[in-house]
Amino acid sequence: MKRLWLLFSQTCTVLLAAYFVVATLKPQWIGHGTNARSAISLFESPAPAAGEIPPGSLRAAAQKASSAVVSINTSKAVAKNPNANDPWFRFFYGDQGDEPQGGLGSGVIVSPEGYILTNNHVIEEADEIQVFFNDGRKAAAKVIGTDPDSDLAVLKVEMDRLPTIVLGNSDSLQVGDQVLAIGNPFGVGQTVTSGIVSALGRNQLGINTFENFIQTDAAINPGNSGGALVDTNGNLLGINTAIYSRSGGSMGIGFAIPVATAKQVLEDIVKDGKVTRGWIGVEPNDLSAELAETFDVKTNVGVIITGVLQNGPAAQAGIRPGDVIVSIAGKPVQDVTQLLSIVSSLKPGTEAAFVVQRKDETLKLKLTPGVRPKPKAQPR
After folding, report:
1. Phi-psi sector, 337: left (phi>0), alpha (psi -120 to 50), beta
2. What's the pTM?
């Protein structure tokens, strides 16, 4: 009996040792691995159908507009210092490099004929302009015309099969509308950012002569200038132009020129090579209580005229210092910026109706605007 019990205990010991070894080294042989894996529950979403867009995604707008947004590289030859060959000059200042200066920006293809809208400051004084397309192609561009007053320029490239952007309606924009900014910030490559319309009609910023900016919080950085501001359908609403920044980077305050203004500039430049604006020859000022008292004005609405150019269009129509312009061509005038914008949109040589308040008398005058003189070049 002792021998049987000894044999049984030895057999159990060997079997337990074997079980321990197998459970440690090959647990799948006894099903431990299967049980461990089956204890984890995972939930995976089904694969989206081909072409399906997730709810809330702006993918369609970005894809529609991105192909028509280009990167612009410019180069400008550096003026050589006349003393560069003087040994003493080189001793104190070293060798002056003569490599061309480069610039980066963006642009928007607005027609299959190869016309591209961008900012004037992107291509200003450039000797060579290269346009890089979203499909990998590149081409040299020539300047068709510029408009420093609105900071817009029109380029043209000679290429076929060009994608073009669809022009939207910037006049229907409201604060809170979603927008996308597309461009080439810092030269990293095409980038899309999103935001909303923060404000409309921003002016008196000291950026351009004629200002009527769309303000947005979509991230805009150096290199985005000349790029597209589009709506959720991918239609062009504006040309990104400037940012407010203390650091040089985006702080959520960017400005774009409305597409309504850009379209007018584009059509004038393509047709005439320049932008022709109306001009009436007056010195306007916002109506203040002091000016109203000085000129004995009986209204608090409009823009007061403090100076009139002799023999200018306004003088010939009978406008005098102290008159308050209340409306032009049926459009109410509230400040100097609005006056300049409306007058500049008038067609030179075509008579327009002006409503003027002179003390306590309301006058209706017919005024034929002239051509706005070319502004003197200002150092940038």
Report:
1. alpha
2. 0.73
From the CA atom positions of the chain, what is the Rg in Å? 34
The rounded Cα 200 to chain-centroid distance in angstroms is 14
The model's pLDDT over 284-337, given as tens digits with 9 standing for 90+, comes to 998 888 888 888 888 888 999 999 999 999 999 999 999 999 999 988 998 888
Per-residue pLDDT tens over the stretch 114-138: 999 999 999 988 889 999 998 889 9
Its sign, for the CA torsion 304, 309, 314, 315, is positive
Please report which residue ranges of the chain form alpha helices under DSSP H. 2-25, 32-38, 59-66, 87-93, 120-123, 259-272, 289-294, 313-317, 336-345
Catalytic residue selected from 66, 71, 170, 225: 225
CA distances to 45, 46, 52, 58, 232 from 49, in Å:
12, 9, 5, 17, 22
Edge-to-edge, what's the strand order for the sheet holding 152-156? Answer: 138-140, 128-132, 69-76, 101-109, 115-119, 152-156, 142-147
225 is an active site residue: yes
151 catalytic? Reply is yes
Query: What is the maximal distance between C-alpha atoms in the chain?
Result: 139
Which residue among the candidates 147, 149, 151, 217 is catalytic per the annotation?
151
* Active-site option among 106, 121, 198, 250: 121
For residue 206, the 8-state DSSP code is: S
Is 335 among the catalytic positions?
A: no
Q: What structural domains and CATH numbers belong to the chain? A: 69-78+87-156 (2.40.10.10), 170-272 (2.40.10.10), 278-371 (2.30.42.10)
Residue keyed to tokens 């490559």: 189
